[in-house]
Amino acid sequence: MTDLLAYDFMRYALIAAIVTGLAAPAVGTYIVQRRLALLGDGLGHVALTGVALGLLTNVAPTLTAVAIAVLGAVAIELLRTYAKTSGDIALAMLFYGGIAGGVMLVNLAGESASTLNSFLFGSITTIDAADLVTVAILGLVVVLLSIGLSPQLFAVCQDEDHARVSGVPVRLYTMLVAVLAAVTITVAMRTVGLLLVSALMVVPVAAAQQLTHSFRSTHLVAMVLGLVAAVGGVVASYEIDTQPGPTIVMLALAVFAMAAVARGLMSLRRSAP
To answer: Residue 118 domain-assigned?
Structure first.
């Protein structure tokens, strides 16, 4: 660990992993509650178009990815609300349009496939100080809003009709969940990559659900598990010389498997005479 902290890029990577590990499950809990687990994948593909636009215009790709991903999040909510388009169809359109637009703009920008891969699969060890500041600020905003507005966000994710009758501005908060998801994806794209970001939003939540019995406890435990997976994945990738993104996701899946086994053992113990 001392050797790992001796390098600036690894210190930056660990800080980014901490921010990502907390932010992704923080908003992912609401995404899972709304049964939109694949929203992260759809918005990830849209963010790819934003990255490519940044490369084409020589603007910081993280900033353009945030802008385009937020527009995509707003678009999917408007489609669901006004065009009466189902969530899966709207997500499919995001998938296809996002990946096609991203690849086309990358080609126009004259960038190589390796540049694209660093965003698709993550490149946490290439984060510099400027990237870290952006990631930290956006991640902090996501975590604070996810925790501070937990009652309202839970209400609209659990039952929109009941929340509307209770006087909760449903449209505002459903839009906020989508926007927070979009911002989280751009925060996490340098850590796990746009193609794997949804896993870090969903898997820690699924693992937490195996161990908890309330939404609040699931929310908090998911953030802890996401933090463990993100930081542990970065450290493990350094030790065994693998890419951090896939290593983080595999560690998160291992945590889920252990949580599922633990729940099964507890169920057997309770049912034993």
So the answer is: yes
